[in-house]
Write a structure and sequence with these properties.
By secondary structure, this protein is mostly beta strands. The protein has two domains: 112 residues, Sandwich (Immunoglobulin-like); 77 residues, Sandwich (Immunoglobulin-like), CATH 2.60.40. The chain contains no helices and 15 strands. Strands 4, 5, 6, 8 and 9 form a five-stranded antiparallel β-sheet that branches. The chain has a four-stranded antiparallel β-sheet with strand order 1-15-12-13, with no helix packed on it. β10 and β11 form a beta hairpin.
Length: 227
């Protein structure tokens, strides 16, 4: 399933590394609804070791892995099918997504690419984001994913003629929909059409770079294709 096609170019930019502490762990979710943009199934997680200071959890869809500074939180709150409410009591550690829930955020221009589980404190009702956990949101469907535009950069660090090596990096637009993507596959090819393409490797959907081994044959021209 072709996601993007690019030619190797000189230049480079390091991808930002998202990081966040977590006390909730092991968030998992498998979408059981076959239609695109509809999610159903059970979100599960491992609670903090000490839950005495928490009253409940809430589960959101979101566009990004962490809240973007200076941008209004666009996460959409999910409701439980069995409880018919939007909070999960401490000790439950799962939420059965209400049937027919749309995969979306509160901002129509930003697709839901992540699931976030957040805990609320009993003392002041605050929601400490540093204790939250998240997982990429994969939307199961029977159709191939749409094209995901990206910008890529590659600097050849191999001094040998007709061979390349270095780090291939790419960036995505904020509105890129990764809900139908689980991984990227990187190929080397003779041209942008994929002539004589050779698989170099795969990386998770959350990755934004791939190390091209030194000594990779390049010939007269070398293109990298990202599927």
């Amino acid at each position: 399933r072709l996601l993007a096609l690019l030619a190797a170019t000189l230049g480079g930019a390091a991808a930002d590394a998202w990081s966040a502490g977590t006390a909730i762990r092991g968030v998992s979710f498998t979408d059981t609804h076959p239609d695109p943009y509809v999610i159903e199934g059970v979100v599960q997680w491992t609670p903090p070791m000490d839950t005495a200071s928490f009253t409940h959890y809430k589960v959101f869809t979101a566009n990004t892995e962490v809240e973007v500074k200076g941008r209004r939180w666009e996460g959409a709150l999910l409701w439980d099918q069995d409880l018919q409410e939007d909070i999960v009591a401490v000790g439950t550690n799962q939420l059965n997504i209400r049937h027919g829930t749309k995969r979306r955020t509160m901002d129509p221009s930003l697709p839901a690419n992540w699931l976030h589980v957040l805990a609320w404190r009993s003392s002041d009702g605050s929601q400490p984001t540093e204790l939250g956990a998240k997982v990429p949101l994969y939307d199961y469907n029977r159709s191939p994913p749409s094209l995901v535009p990206l910008s890529a950069f590659f600097v050849d660090e191999d001094p040998e003629v007709s061979k390349v090596g270095g780090t291939l990096r790419w960036t995505l637009a904020a509105d890129a929909d990764l809900g139908f993507t689980t991984r990227f596959a990187i190929y080397r090819a003779a041209d942008a059409s994929g002539t004589s393409e050779v698989l170099l490797g795969t990386v998770p959907q959350t990755a934004r770079e791939f190390t091209v081994p030194r000594g990779t044959p390049a010939g007269y021209t070398c293109h990298f294709l990202v599927y």
